[in-house]
Amino acid sequence: MLSHSQRTTILELAGQKVSRREIARVLGVSRLSVRRVLRSSSAEVPELERAEKAEPYRRQILELLHQCKGNLVRVHEELVAGGAALSYQALTAFCRRHGIGQEPVVAAGRYEFQPGEELQHDTSPHEVELGGRKRKVQTASAVLCYSRMLFFQCYPTFQRFDCKVFLTDALRYFSGAAGRVMIDNTHVVVLRGTGREMVPVPEMAAFAERFGFRFAAHEVGDANRSARVERPFSFIENNFLAGRAFAGWEDLNQQARQWCDKVNSTYKKHIRTVPRELFALERLHLRPLPAWIPEVYRLHQRLVDVEGYIALHTNRYSVPVDWIGRRVEVRETKDQIEIQLDARRLVTHRRVAEAEHQRIMLAGHRPPRGQGAPRPDPHPEEQAIVTAAPELAEYVAGLKQRSRKLVTLVLRQLLRLVREYPREPLLGAVREAARYGLYDLDRLERMILRRVAREYFLLEEGPPDD
Fold first, then answer.
1. Are residues 205 and 333 in the same domain?
2. Threshold 0.90, pTM exceeds
3. Do 273 and 307 sit in the same domain of this protein?
4. Looking at the structure, do residues 157 and 26 belong to the same domain, yes or no?
5. What is the 3-state composition of the chain as percent helix, strand, coil, each rounded to the nearest 5?
């Protein structure tokens, strides 16, 4: 069918006495079409007065559309089963022309942002090949709305701790913070409310205050409001993740950072410039980062188990064996696990990013195979004995080898004798016992008592009392 402009051209050329054959040749149409336009003497395109095949089934289509939950494929199957001679293309064209089952088209809006005004943040699940196997990851992305600078990282889960870690890395990557961070009503940040009524969790509000920005949430269903950060997710999935394999989380996020450097320096058709060039202007309007940025961490309280480990997210981290049964404080950061017993004793492990039921042990926390835990030598009691009476050092060595009691018990008993009895009777009794190989401390004590009685309790003889 000829368009309005073609029909107008035919009428104008005919008015200039151009032949029908010439008009048809110039416009590339048939002479019959030219003859019909000249007969109608009108440039208006005539309406088709052809009956539509689906019109007799209009009522049926409306009923089936409700029953089949808007699925036109099922509607067509039911119509054909009922005897209708109607193609699927004819059905969809009929529904499209009459607006059946079609949502009204709404023109997309446009948001304009000033430099440093807003940063948009969101997450999306993706599948990657990590460590030789396919697995789901959470991709967290941040985009500066004016310059379109992109930064993203991947995590096994995305909780409040991960959100603070990611935003800290993103702000460091951008070397500043925008005045507003737009989110999508995620429970990670939101305490209550949605959209303009959103109230952030106090922990996240304090985090935002540290960097000088505030959290804002778009209205429910208004996905266009966060289009700056939503658009790159498809690009990440079909470009960065396509055909790539990663050795681990550190390798994945390192390659992600390098890829961001590359795409941020590439010309973008939809903005007709390079993001880094716009960022040169926007960076001047970003809020400067604090002079000192504290490391994001989580605190846990744990009890060291009988094997000398503490459990965290199904993984177990070793501590010295003398901490068994003690309560410790565990500080979890982005890369490390710090286990602290007191102000002077601290153990640091490399953090395992996900729950893998691993055992992580430091070599110094266990003795070599076949050796027991080292015992303190000499014993504290032995040190006290030798300090008080150095002459007993040789007797103490023999006592540790030949005594039938536990070494600790006999040393404690000998230390009591040193502290309770006079020095000379004690040393004399010990020399005599050593000469005869006597290491029974009960008999040694009786020998000391006899000497004490003989030397300290002798009474002078005098005349008998009248």
1. no
2. no
3. no
4. no
5. 45, 20, 40
